[in-house]
Write a sequence for this structure.
């Protein structure tokens, strides 16, 4: 850690962030009026420290869940409807069928579809209400809706019921997205009640679902600060997190809002020590709009982001109780070297980064921006198992996530200060690096491993040699490029332009199917997704194999073209 980094981090304290956490622990931030109240408080605290604040006022399309219940066998079962469930105030009655599925055993599988594509249950599902194990997520709801279910009940793993959102539409829907907006009634309930309803399903019984939903366009506030760098002020790191929550949401995400506030304060105080700028934003519409705030921002400032954003950094659930480890850490491969070193220096821990999920306000993949962090620290796996906890998507692994139990006790002062410094150092190091700290050689190696894995599964049914050869050629060009950079043979400005432009080419082919500036569904996206059909050929018989191979041909063309464009960019440097 150099002198500038040490000096900036020495300014970090808990006075301002902990005060915000304590304040946010006193009111819910689900309805836009309460989210706007939270935005006003953040803006006021920023202004108190002299920061210039911009308050955007987008209109966001949101779904606000109300009461829900399930009636069956003469009993009434408590339930929660996920955002974007269909409204069923008058009740929806149907035959109940149980389609068994595995509960998510780690964060990697929380967002996945629930059924193996080879499992044909359409005859059981169509026209009925399905009950199945898992959170009422887009993967579960969309899959059962496609199979013809009229209602879906998700059985949560424990005694609590978790709020969530069931639409696969990412952020603000456009006309092309509207057909994917859920049309089924969905609810979540706890494990004991789920077990009771499974018995009713086995007996061929009926259930009635009741949900009260409010849906539409809402005026929302979005707070942003821009901290200018002294040498390249037009270039910036985008640091962001969501302000809305389920209930008071201390661990998800009052602690993140507080971390952003403190980082903004210390960076503003030390802005003359920044080479590039830092742009910090607090999002509305994360929980009730499937990342509507960050999607609006990505759409509204798309061209500026394309031209000037060198990295995006998401801050969600830092500083939670028992969160001592940095595992399940979202980061694109080119950023691994940066974040592992930062975490070692600040926390003395070994980071375990992994591929970012299609979640957590990663609304910038289609623009093509190198990205790191989403969730930060979490509790050790052994401790989670000792406590009997199941996998959740935030709160440092605490199962208070997305429940009314996510209160002040979930936050940890020492962990929050540590995580503030982790985020701050990573952002400072990105903003101040003479050469942007992203190693595309590692990403090219990832591509080669992905292609090899797909080829092994495809066997002799499809040849991925063109993709493999293009990735190898890119890797060779990158080796020469980084060698020239290390030897000082390439001006820093030119090197950085290439590193940034590589993100615009390579991030989309690794994380998106949709064209640039559009948003893929909120469903799991595999590596090099247009090649991923190669891993699914076993599921295709004579009737569909030819179509799958056609899709693979087109997908490989996209990948090879992008890899060749990236190679030419590097070679021209």
């Amino acid at each position: 850690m150099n002198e500038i980094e040490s000096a900036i981090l020495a300014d970090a304290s808990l006075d301002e962030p902990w005060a915000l956490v304590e304040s946010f622990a006193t009111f819910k931030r689900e309805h836009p009026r309460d989210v706007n109240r939270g935005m006003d408080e953040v803006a006021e605290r920023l202004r108190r420290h002299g920061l210039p604040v911009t308050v955007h006022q987008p209109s966001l399309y949101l779904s606000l869940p109300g009461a829900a219940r399930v009636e069956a066998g003469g009993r009434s079962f408590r339930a929660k409807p996920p955002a974007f469930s269909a409204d069923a105030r008058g009740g929806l009655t149907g035959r109940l069928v149980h389609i068994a599925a595995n509960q998510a055993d780690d964060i990697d599988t929380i967002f996945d579809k629930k059924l193996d594509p080879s499992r044909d249950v359409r005859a059981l599902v169509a026209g009925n209400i399905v009950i199945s194990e898992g959170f009422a997520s887009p993967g579960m709801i969309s899959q059962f809706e496609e199979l013809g279910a009229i209602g879906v009940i998700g059985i949560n793993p424990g005694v609590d019921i978790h709020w969530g959102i069931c639409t696969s539409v990412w952020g603000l829907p456009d006309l092309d997205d509207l057909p994917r907006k859920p049309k089924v009634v969905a609810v979540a309930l706890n494990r004991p009640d789920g077990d009771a309803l499974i018995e009713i399903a086995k007996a061929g019984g009926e259930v009635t679902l009741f949900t009260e939903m409010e849906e539409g366009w809402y005026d929302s506030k979005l707070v942003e600060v821009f901290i200018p760098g002294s040498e390249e002020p037009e270039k910036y790191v985008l640091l962001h997190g969501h302000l809305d929550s389920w209930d008071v949401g201390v661990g998800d995400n009052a602690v993140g809002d507080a971390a952003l506030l403190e980082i903004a304060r210390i960076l503003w105080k030390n802005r003359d020590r920044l080479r590039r700028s830092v742009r910090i934003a607090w999002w509305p519409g994360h929980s009730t709009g499937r990342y509507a705030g960050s999607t609006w921002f990505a759409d509204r400032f798309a061209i500026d982001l394309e031209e000037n954003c060198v990295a995006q950094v998401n801050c969600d659930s830092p500083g939670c109780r028992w969160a001592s480890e940095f595992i399940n850490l979202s980061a694109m491969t080119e950023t691994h070297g940066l974040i592992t070193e930062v975490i070692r220096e600040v926390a003395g821990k070994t980071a375990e980064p992994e591929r970012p999920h299609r979640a957590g306000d990663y609304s910038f993949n289609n623009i093509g921006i190198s990205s790191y962090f989403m969730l930060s620290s979490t509790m050790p796996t052994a401790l989670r198992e000792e406590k009997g906890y199941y996998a959740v998507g935030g709160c440092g692994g605490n199962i208070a996530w997305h429940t009314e139990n996510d209160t002040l006790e979930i936050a940890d002062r020492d962990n929050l200060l540590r995580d503030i410094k982790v985020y701050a150092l990573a952002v400072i190091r990105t903003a101040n690096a003479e050469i942007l700290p992203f190693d595309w050689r590692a990403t090219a190696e990832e591509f080669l491993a992905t292609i090899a894995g797909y080829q092994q599964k495809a066997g002799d049914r499809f040849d991925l040699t063109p993709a493999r050869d293009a990735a190898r050629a890119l890797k060779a060009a990158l080796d020469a490029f980084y060698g020239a950079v290390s030897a000082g043979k390439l001006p820093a400005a030119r090197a950085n332009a290439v590193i940034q432009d590589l993100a615009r080419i390579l991030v989309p082919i690794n994380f998106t199917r949709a064209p640039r500036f559009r948003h893929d569904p909120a469903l799991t996206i595999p590596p090099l997704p247009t090649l991923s059909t190669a891993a699914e050929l076993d599921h295709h018989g004579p009737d569909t194999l030819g179509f799958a191979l056609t899709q693979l041909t087109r997908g490989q063309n996209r990948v090879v073209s992008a890899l060749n464009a990236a190679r030419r960019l590097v070679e021209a440097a």
In short: The chain has a mean pLDDT of 96. The chain is about 40% helix and 15% strand.
